[in-house]
Amino acid sequence: MSNKKGKxxxxxxxxxxxEKVLDGNDHAFRLLVEKYxxxxxxxxxxxxxxxxxxxxxxxEVFMKIYLSLPQYQxxxxxxxxxxxxxxxxxxxxxxxxxxxxxxxxxxxxxLVGTAKDSVEKEIIETDRRRLxxxxxxxxPDNYRDVIYGFYIAEKSYQQMAExxxxxxxxxxxxxxxxxxxxxxxxxxxxxx
Length: 192
Prior knowledge:
Blueprint: H1 2-22, H2 26-48, H3 51-68, H4 77-107, H5 115-138, H6 141-152, H7 157-164, H8 168-185
Helix pairs in contact: 1-2, 2-3, 2-4, 3-4, 4-5, 6-8, 7-8
């Protein structure tokens, strides 16, 4: 009986976290990321078979999860995020194959595993970084710092408040407004 209760509490906890994220609570989203980080990574790695690629893709998946969360309809959160992760990994794999074919055609070389594979991965990674940088540059200045600090540099509210010489509440409000700006102005397709 205690097992059932424990499972029920986890379900309620998960639903409560999702509600908090939808209400603008960044810490709740960070808890969801921590809870599912390994599952998402393993799912993506199973398709891509490359640790660095899988790590980068996992970050993109969590951005998509965050932006898509308002459309989530309690159909099983783990199943839902796994589907997003698999689709993202398959998209990346398709793009890799397409790029490899394009590079091979341009160079008129046979498709074989060579040093060019690592060059190709570097190109893909550079493109992805450029895309994320470009999207971050679209953010208004006062939002860019807190989004970068919290999500990329993984700083605490306290650290950012001290660095910017403001109250923690100011950082919370900036993040709340920045997230709403992103939801209004960015679409999931912008990151694929």
